[in-house]
# Entry
Amino acid sequence: MRFSRKLIACMGIFALLLLLIGPGAGPALAKTSFVSIGTGGTGGIYYPYGGGVAEIWSKYVKGVKAVAEVTGASVENVKLAHKGETVIGEVMGDVAVAGYKGLSKFKGKKHNILAMAIMYPNLLQVVTLKKSGITNIEQVKGRSISTGSPGSGTNFMSEAVLKALGIPLNSFKDRRLSFTESANALRDGTIDVGIWSVGPGTSSILDLATTHDIRIIEFTPAQTKQILAANKTYSSVDLAGGVYRGVDQAVSTIGVWNVMICQESLDTGMVYNLVKALYENQDYLLKIHPSASYTTPENAVKYSPIPLHPGTLKYLDERGVSVPMRLKP
# Structure
């Protein structure tokens, strides 16, 4: 179910009023903490993943009611978490670094965020129809494409990759569509290329591949070298063959880890309880999406791009997981 930020804010105000009125006004509701999770559009993995996390927290963390909220994704989620309009945000690692340090689209303004947990890796999936004849990313020049919706991590990563390859952002017509809109635009021929930064097997591409012959455009070794030299949070990864109908061979592409962020000032005890419930109920999250197999305490230490919240550090210490100094705020 989709909850608006206004509704969540009203719920929080109502709970606060009950606290001020006194114990006779409904003590059960007064003790409830409302936790909103900024996800993304419904055509990706963020939303169902966030919905699963919300169910875990609502069930296993006493006094917490969590909801997954549809947003513009990574860039917007950093801003929302910083302002306190959401409590938790699902964010791509490169966007988290930019927000934390005040770089790129956050230039001049460091955002007060820390990492709670590592989610799973995103793969850049540059999709076209086979009949387009496009086989190389450089062929987007003069074409109509979608680099992802405004405020999304996909748009952030798409622009970073294109800039690294020396492809001017004004050399093509950018529709900047959501995942679902990009798939529909490829179907009806209004765009030639759609770019997704998402986990393998996302629903919008799967659906497109059932009715159309698609191609996932591969990056050459030289292109990969250029991209990695310009972006330290990226890595070279393969999209396995067989994930999508008609894409039978592995495709060389670029990967980045997703991270769950929160406000730096969020209560340590609250974060500890949320993180503990998340990791100790991973089996439930796996039923929502197989990408949750990457959501482990060990991966939080290996792949977090920004420092971890003290609540997470407390849980990791209890688990005996060693944390490097670079991840301590």
